[in-house]
Design brief:
lipopolysaccharide transport protein A fold; 10% helix; globular
Length: 182
């Protein structure tokens, strides 16, 4: 083999090796179109009506979209207050959304509402309308007070869980208190 052919083969080998050593750039991921305006950690939101505190929302993370009047929250702890500003109940949920202008609230994931009267509601989703002071869901619900338990699907109630309407498949276990009189 003559020198010319050796040089061509050697140069071809170098080109192949150098070409194989180039780092391939990963394609750039497109930026999300819908980024929030603000992301807050360990945040607290306070809502009032006519100067009276109605709701205090604490969340591990809050993402706000101002142009949509939408706030999403993770790991929620919500305190509710009555017309006089007195605490009435506590709500806990994995996630939720908030419409700040109307103060509407929707939550989901391991939702629990516990009133100051020790009534406990458990469900997977819940909506709260502060203007009507009502909570609603279409999901399975379990309500416990002392040893009494009611279950069913769908619910309309006030935030104190004093007036409750379970919509369908209502079941209950009422434990009679023992009377000490003979």
């Amino acid at each position: 083999m003559d020198n010319f052919k050796r040089h061509i083969i050697l140069l071809s080998g170098i080109v192949v090796l150098l070409g194989g050593c180039q780092r391939e750039q990963p394609p750039k991921a497109p930026l999300p179109r819908n980024l929030p305006d603000q992301v807050l950690s360990n945040a607290t939101m306070v809502f009032t009506q006519n100067g009276v505190k109605t709701t205090v929302i604490k969340a591990k993370t809050i993402s706000k979209w101002s142009n949509k009047d939408l706030t999403q929250a993770e790991s929620l702890l919500v305190d509710f207050f009555d017309e006089k500003g007195e605490h009435t109940s506590l709500l806990v949920a994995d996630s939720g959304w908030i419409k700040e202008k109307s103060q509407m609230l929707g939550v989901w994931g391991n939702v629990q509402v516990i009133t100051d009267e020790k009534v406990k509601l458990e469900t997977q989703t819940l909506n709260w309308d502060p203007n009507k002071r009502k909570i609603t869901t279409e999901d399975f619900v379990k309500i416990t007070k002392d040893e009494d338990v009611m279950t069913g699907y769908g619910l309309e109630a006030d935030q104190e869980l004093k007036n409750i309407k379970i919509k369908t498949e209502v079941k209950g276990e009422i434990v009679k208190k023992k009377n000490s009189n003979p």
